[in-house]
Design a protein that fits this description.
8 helices; globular; Hypothetical protein af1432; 185 residues; mainly alpha
Length: 185
Amino acid sequence: MTELQAFRRMDESTAEQWTRIGSETFSHPDRVSDAVLLMLRGLSPITDGFAVDQLTHSLQTATRAQQAGADDEMVVAALCHDIGKFVSVPNHPRIAAEILRPYVSDEVFHVIRTHQDFQGRHYYRHFGGDPDARERYRGQPWFAMGERFADEWDQTSFDPDYPTEPLSHFEPLVRQVFRSPKSVA
């Protein structure tokens, strides 16, 4: 192993090594979108008592967002809003939001991070929760977007008869949005 090849401790690394790491990392622009598409496909066996599986729910949410004229970032975020369920249902909004964070606007990030509380208006009461949990975010510049996402697209997307676009329809958008980060979170 040469010095330029690899290091064993970051505190002993060189600028030349980091230049190479950066170059190699950015030479794989589809790595993130490939992983996201894999996780989305992994939602298909998760039903958990709903009328459709979680992939279908995500596709319906994205289809509704796109048909309503949402921008590409929001359509991809709608598609990915429940991707965290691939790992963990209880904290899926935060997982999904963190995956999206470097690639979308702050507003879209916050909508996905808080979507469960916004959607809670439609079911939290069944668990003894506060159906007005979204109110803690009132006054945020993205509040109206959160309401629209939850009320018009997310909570309505459990319909096995809804004409839903397939994942292949959204794949070019996924690849476009995840091609290069806007920021390093």
